[in-house]
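pls ignore typos typing on phone
heme C + seq
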Amino acid sequence: MKAPVLIALALPALIAGCASGPTAEEQAAMAADARKASGALIQKLGGELKAAMGEKGPEGAISVCKERAPQIAADVSKQFNFDVKRVSPKNRNPAGVPDAWEAEAQAGLEKRLAAGEKPETLDTWQIVSTPAGKQFRFAKALPVQPVCLNCHGDPAAISDGVKARLAAEYPQDKATGYSAGMVRGIISIKRAL
Ligand code: HEC
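k done
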């Protein structure tokens, strides 16, 4: 009975050895890059959203979220050689459904937030093995700030104009009912290794 046990123990080590991934240093550098990429997305989108809110109010600013958010994510993806997007278990964009890794990552970040961690440091990353090879995965929490409530808050507190635009453009919208401090979603970053 001993041999099968030994094989069972040795096999994962062998497999890990064969498909040896990035070194600890390379991993840390990727995580640092992913933090920079998510920071760039937050800064650019946040800046444009704030400007549009000031100029046109929340109803007019919806187009920034609809058109600019995916464009900015694509620009940042190119700049950093990552696949960058925003997802949420209560998604507004029909393409924003989290996969299993993303859902688990957000749940973990929510737990850390509840345990008192500051929103700014709420990120996590991992090298995962998939049938298509190893991947670097990274998630950063996007906590709800008061300004977000204009479009993601309690429906009773969202203006009629915003509600009408959202209903017209996102008939499957799940992304309302949030209060400040909740995690609205994550920036999800991926790179095939
Ligand atoms: C002016 C309205 C508006 C405001 C303010 C706003 N959002 Fe959004 N949000 C949207 C729209 C519209 C979408 C869908 C964008 C798309 O089509 O990709 C969206 C999508 C998202 C998504 C992507 C996942 C999904 O549900 O599709 C996240 C994450 C998100 N918003 C977080 C935030 C956070 C955090 C704030 C505050 C800092 C915020 N939003 C403020 C309108 C808004």
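The longest helix spans residues 24-80. The helical segments are 2-18, 24-80, 100-114, 149-152, 160-169. more later
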